[in-house]
Design a protein that fits this description.
Layout lengths: L10 H9 L25 H24 L6 H31 L7 H38 L4 H4 L2 H24 L4 H38 L3 H37 L4 H7 L2 H22 L1 H18 L1
Helix pairs in contact: 2-3, 2-10, 2-11, 3-4, 3-6, 3-10, 4-6, 4-7, 4-8, 7-8, 8-10, 10-11
Protein name: Melanocyte-stimulating hormone receptor
GO biological process, one term: regulation of gene expression
GO molecular function, one term: melanocyte-stimulating hormone receptor activity
Amino acid sequence: MNDSSRHYFSMKHMDYIYNIDNNITLNTTLGEMNATGIAQIMIPQELFLMLGLISLVENILVVAAIIKNRNLHSPMYYFICCLAVSDMLVSVSNVVETLFMLLKEHGLLLVTAKMLQHLDNVIDIMICSSVVSSLSFLCTIAADRYITIFYALRYHSIMTTQRAVAIIAVVWLTSITSSSLFIVYHTDNAVIACLVTFFGLTLVFTAVLYLHMFILAHVHSRRIMALHKSRRQATSMKGAITLTILLGVFVICWGPFFLHLILILICPTNPYCKCYFSHFNLFLILIICNSLIDPLIYAYRSQELRKTLKEMIFCSWLFAM
């Protein structure tokens, strides 16, 4: 592993793809000219570390707030809590990897090739688990909002706490298992194809639910108002809008990376594609920014969560004094 290389799921796979024709890696030393003569975009390691630490703290606060406030103990917030944990995987892997590389570059850490390989495997699994679980929980929240809006009177019997916990367990088990398999078979293009397909199916599934929700929401809201449940309807639609924002940010932040994967499949040696590949470190910054922005969206859209976060920060400030 190059001392300054970064490898979000999976550096090993990216190295394999590029070594096919040019015997180069996707992540050369930042700013170094690769075999095509295209310079990699330089991103200071300190910026990765700073963004990683900020997003890690933010998501820890979100998880702690949901655990602390009993008013937030509902299926939707359980799923949001899991989404925050998914973002934490990105933050933790980024911080660990950046610290590891900084210490190694400054001669403060001596490691063997076997240790580097193990670090690659762990970080790759964390990142892959993060993207698979994030997409899964976005779909789960979309389905939860759909049930809340169109089956409002039966919601609590359909989406029970036990079912929510079971869904969470299945998503995490599937994410970790699939991620481990992806890393084991990282040299197979089918891995990239599976990830890209899963990303596309997730967007289609969510888009279909939203299309149905927003087309029929007006008609359904009149029925709910007739039953004196207008407040529940407003809350449900607010949750749906929040998820729309989350999904939009996810697509913006992860979209360039998935386009990167698609181009690896269809034109790995094309000069224009290689020019796009040279911006890979910027795509990593966007991925980290997604983990940083999500907690801000949670706090902005949920008054209860925002109130709890303020209390926690204020109490921490008083304790520090």
